[in-house]
Amino acid sequence: MNRKSRRERGHLFYNAAEDRIHAHQEKPEKGSPLQLSSASYKLAFDDMEFLTREELRGVRLMLELTKPELIMQQHDIEHTVVIYGSARTPSPEMMQQAEDEVCALRESSPDSEELHARQANLQRMQEQAHYYNEARRLGAMISERSACEDCPNLHVITGGGPGIMEAANRGAVDVGAPSIGLNIVLPHEQYPNPWISPEFCFQFHYFAMRKMHFLLRARALVAFPGGYGTLDELFETLTLIQTKKIEPLPVLMFGRSFWEKMINFPYMVEQGVINPEDIELFHYVETAEEAWELIRNSLVD
After folding, report:
1. Cys staple from 179: which of 57, 109, 172, 254, with CB 3.0 to 4.6 Å?
2. What pTM, to 2 d.p., does this model score?
3. Nearest CA to 136 among 169, 89, 159?
4. Which pLDDT score is estimated for 1?
5. Read out DSSP for 169-181?
6. How far is CA 12 from the centre of its chain?
7. Closest by CA position to 71, among listed 141, 173, 155, 168
């Protein structure tokens, strides 16, 4: 709560936090318990049942826009690099656990179907694991080099979950830098990874507000291999650039072989659903160094 006196704040009114305290301090002998316990008597902003009504959707959208915005303003966060990617990309710790489990099964059940399934899963994880390492390296590069290579001070911002998101936040921690995580309430695969700076660990209900915060301060976007969520975030950004709703920014798609198998952009041009120049809205990259150079060059030119 703001501890300044009302005169120091420049007005005489109690603020909402003070009024909330006063409302909770009311004693039954000063009013009828029946009225004091009524839901209608609660302060509107202190009544969760009221705030979660269907009719208050617009207010909740505004709150989700405003809360992270004010916190980032207070900490002078002006420029970010967005890093998207799969929540399922394995970390080194996950790889080690999977390898240990396969080794144990080889010794105990060398001919089991479970071993064959685990070996196939391990091979798939090994193919994806390098993306975690590259995302971690890129998170470190962005956080460390932006302050000393004629760039604005850049902060890594991710979806706040595991996998690629965790790797990028972890990279920022590797060089002692803060980073941001925009979590969202989901049935699975969403929890704050331990590498987000706690003061910048946000949680959203609305995808729309979360995606807006990804782009409000973005100076570049890097999309690592991912599923529906990554595609949603990537294509929303490409659509906003294509339709000139936002100014162009570097959109880097990490891992050309993955993306070319996933999406046939030349076929989209061939079918006339996008223009040839729309393919120029993004670039493929293969390493953290390549991604950083493109980001840096876009900011210092």
Report:
1. 172
2. 0.89
3. 169
4. 42
5. HHHHHHTT---EE
6. 40
7. 155
Tokens of 13: 């009114």
**Residue holding tokens 């309430």?**
185
Task: Write the DSSP string, 34-70.
Answer: HHHT-GGGS-GGG-HHHHTSGGGHHHHHHHHHHHHHH
Helix, strand, or coil (residue 202): strand
Give 98-105 contacts, CB < 8 A, sequence gap 24+: 98/122, 98/125
Supply the range of the domain harboring residue 179: 78-90+130-300
Q: What pLDDT score was predicted for residue 6?
A: 61
* One domain for residues 146 and 274: yes
Q: Is residue 19 part of a domain?
A: no
Q: How many domains does the chain have?
A: 2
Give the pLDDT of residue 49: 94
65-70: which pairs have CB atoms within 8 A and are 24 or more residues apart?
65/209, 65/212, 65/213, 67/202, 68/182, 68/202, 68/213, 69/213, 69/216
Question: Is residue 27 assigned to a domain?
Answer: no
Cβ neighbourhood burial of 236 (10 Å; 0-12, 13-18, 19+): middle
Are 290 and 181 in the same domain?
Answer: yes
